[in-house]
Specification:
The protein is α+β, with helices and mostly antiparallel strands. The chain folds into three domains: 191 residues, FAD/NAD(P)-binding domain (3-Layer(bba) Sandwich); 135 residues, D-Amino Acid Oxidase, Chain A, domain 2 (2-Layer Sandwich), CATH 3.30.9; 62 residues, no CATH class. It is 37% helix and 27% strand. Strands 1, 2, 8, 9, 10, 11, 18 and 19 form an eight-stranded mixed sheet that branches. Strands 5, 6, 12, 13, 14, 15, 16 and 17 form an eight-stranded mixed sheet that branches. Helix 11 runs antiparallel to helix 12. 48% of the residues are buried. The chain binds flavin-adenine dinucleotide.
């Protein structure tokens, strides 16, 4: 045996799993296909905090490369003509301490991987895993792009949404077209002074912005976002691949031409763009563990179906897999029966509630309020869940049900009326 644990993929799920395994003295190898961790990720992103610092105290490090603390969320609802819009702010307004941090993945992912290396994990970059080694049905190592065979007690598949490792191990099939979202992301250089005014909530505390509707959505699913960093602005567009009727760059261009967006980006200079796929596992989560292997983060399909947020689930599933690997190796049983505690852990956590809640919400919304009501609901549901129940405590499912009841009884008629009247009369 070369290693106790091989972790494939140095994204948030993989680096957390590798760090926690190495912390307990396991001989741990972290394999990353990028020249650096984060190189293959779409940068300029937001990480909801919730109880991150309590559950991962080592992440609460002044050295963490944060580009902005974020104190609130603002939502813009733009009518299909693109001219008329209204704005809603988070239920509860500005919160202190911040509710999220914005980061560049090409800085944050290497920092997180360095925590795994500090703990004793070995990181091999520019190494792509092409296959798994099996004995019977049990996974007992990986094969890299050079044909090198590396054996281990446990393999953790943290290789993102296309997860070659999960597919080769037989945990799941390739994703279907209707399970993919597509994102276009631009990065604009700006100044701290402009950003603090353009995204101001109070006393220089800035808010992330989500933009729904508008000419760029073509009346379909998806949204745009503006995330303020220290001296730059991340601009993104997300839609379901199956809903994409136009070139996403054309849709993005329309968003950039909206008069209010132009004021937010006044004087800002585009620096680079990227395009990525996103999980939209609306058909549910796959098998996440078998003899010798566990899948974590996007590899397991843990992305919120409604908003595409996946970093919290990646971090916590990485933690659950590491805890399970540590116990399984100590007990000498790395078969499914030794690893199935991982399934129990994520199924008892916010991950399962979030996946089920967001899937039910999305199914219900399409049936009940249709496309135009969705944006209004999302703001209430998401903000309500987060602010009333936190991410990992009360549970999305119950929170979702009570918010839905509240929404159906009191809010929905009011908002549909508001929406209708605004649309008819203009603003
Ligand atoms: C444009 C965009 C914006 C997003 N914004 C947000 C956001 O604001 N907040 C949020 O919470 N979520 C966001 N998400 C989702 C989030 O990025 C993912 O849910 C999260 O990165 C999942 O983490 P992970 O560690 O499971 O996988 P990843 O971050 O995808 O990491 C997988 C790693 O594995 C490596 N890898 C892949 N295949 C192999 C292989 N065969 N061999 C070796 N290495 C391999 C990759 O290079 C990568 O480093 C966004 C996604 C996109 C595309």
């Amino acid at each position: 045996m070369n290693y106790d644990v091989i972790v494939v993929g140095a994204g948030p799920a993989g680096s957390v799993a590798a760090k926690l395994c190495a912390d307990k003295g396991l001989k741990t190898l972290l394999l990353e296909m990028g020249r650096e961790p984060g190189e293959k990720n779409c940068s300029g992103t937001t990480i909801p905090l919730f109880n991150l610092y309590e559950d991962f105290p080592w992440i609460n490090d002044p050295e963490m490369p944060i580009t902005r603390n974020v104190y609130s969320n603002t939502h813009y609802w733009v009518f299909p003509d693109g001219e008329r819009w209204f704005k809603t702010e988070a239920v509860g307004g500005v919160v202190t301490p911040p509710r999220a941090v914005n980061v560049y993945r090409d800085l944050w992912d290497p920092w997180l991987a360095s925590k795994a290396m500090d703990a004793g994990a070995e990181l091999r970059k520019s190494t792509t895993v092409w296959d798994v080694i099996k004995e019977g049905d049990a996974v007992c190592g990986v094969v890299t792009h050079t044909g090198e065979k590396i054996r281990s007690g446990v393999v953790i598949a943290a290789d993102g949404l296309n997860s070659m490792v999960s597919i080769k191990a037989g945990l799941r099939d390739k994703r279907r077209v209707d399970e993919y979202g597509v994102c276009v992301k631009y990065d604009f250089e700006s100044t701290p002074e402009h950003i603090e005014v353009a995204f101001n909530m109070a006393d220089g505390q800035v808010a992330n912005e989500s933009w729904y509707g508008g000419t760029w959505s073509s009346g379909r699913t998806g949204y745009c976002w503006l995330f303020p960093n220290y001296d730059s602005i991340s601009v993104g567009l997300f839609t379901l691949l199956s809903d994409l009727k136009e070139n996403p760059f054309v849709l993005m261009q329309r968003f950039l031409e909206h008069p209010l967006v132009k004021t937010k980006l006044k004087g800002a200079k585009p620096r680079y763009y990227s395009v990525r796929n996103l999980n939209s596992c609306k058909n549910g989560v796959d098998k996440t563990c078998a003899d010798g292997i566990m899948a974590v983060g996007d590899a397991a399909g843990f992305t919120c179906v409604v908003e595409g947020c996946g970093i919290p689930a990646a971090l916590w599933s990485g933690k659950f897999a590491a805890e399970t690997a540590i116990d399984a190796i100590a007990s000498g049983d790395v078969s499914y029966s030794g690893l199935k505690a991982y399934e129990t852990k994520w199924k008892n956590s916010f991950i399962a509630r979030d996946m089920a809640g967001s899937k039910k919400t999305s199914d219900w919304l399409y049936k009940t309020v249709g496309a135009e009501g969705i944006g209004l609901f999302i703001q209430h549901a998401i903000e309500g869940w987060m602010l009333k129940h936190g991410w990992s405590e009360g549970g999305h499912d119950d929170a979702c049900r009570s918010l839905m009841e509240d929404f159906i009884q009191s809010q929905l008629p009011r908002y549909l009326k508001l929406y209708g009247s605004l649309y008819e009369e203009g603003v």
